[in-house]
Amino acid sequence: MRAPEEIILQPLVTEKSTALMAENKYTFIVDRNANKIEIKNAIEKLFNVKVLKVNTLMDRGKLRRVGRFAGRQPDRKKAIVTLRPGDKIKVFEGLE
């Protein structure tokens, strides 16, 4: 079994993810090969909260240009985690 730090790469803070915090939903960038059960267990171990639901989606990397050279940002996987009412994740405190 992988360590939780290998599964949860970083929190995702955008305008939309900040608005979801009012509904007790938090967004993270996760390992592309992680499944919902692994994500749930990793969040519960890292932040000592109870996860009710995990929604995942794959983001295709955007096409970027530097002069005449075209490249692509890497693909990434996002997870939107719904927590039990009353639970909070301290990483996001002060953003709401």
TrEMBL record:
<dbReference type="InterPro" id="IPR012678">
    <property type="entry name" value="Ribosomal_uL23/eL15/eS24_sf"/>
</dbReference>
<dbReference type="GO" id="GO:0005840">
    <property type="term" value="C:ribosome"/>
</dbReference>
<comment type="subunit">
    <text>Part of the 50S ribosomal subunit. Contacts protein L29, and trigger factor when it is bound to the ribosome.</text>
</comment>
<keyword id="KW-0687">Ribonucleoprotein</keyword>
<keyword id="KW-0689">Ribosomal protein</keyword>
<dbReference type="InterPro" id="IPR013025">
    <property type="entry name" value="Ribosomal_uL23-like"/>
</dbReference>
<comment type="function">
    <text>One of the early assembly proteins it binds 23S rRNA. One of the proteins that surrounds the polypeptide exit tunnel on the outside of the ribosome. Forms the main docking site for trigger factor binding to the ribosome.</text>
</comment>
<dbReference type="GO" id="GO:0006412">
    <property type="term" value="P:translation"/>
</dbReference>
<keyword id="KW-0699">rRNA-binding</keyword>
<dbReference type="Pfam" id="PF00276">
    <property type="entry name" value="Ribosomal_L23"/>
</dbReference>
<dbReference type="GO" id="GO:0019843">
    <property type="term" value="F:rRNA binding"/>
</dbReference>
<dbReference type="GO" id="GO:1990904">
    <property type="term" value="C:ribonucleoprotein complex"/>
</dbReference>
<keyword id="KW-0694">RNA-binding</keyword>
<protein>
    <recommendedName>
        <fullName>Large ribosomal subunit protein uL23</fullName>
    </recommendedName>
</protein>
<comment type="similarity">
    <text>Belongs to the universal ribosomal protein uL23 family.</text>
</comment>
<dbReference type="InterPro" id="IPR012677">
    <property type="entry name" value="Nucleotide-bd_a/b_plait_sf"/>
</dbReference>
<dbReference type="GO" id="GO:0003735">
    <property type="term" value="F:structural constituent of ribosome"/>
</dbReference>
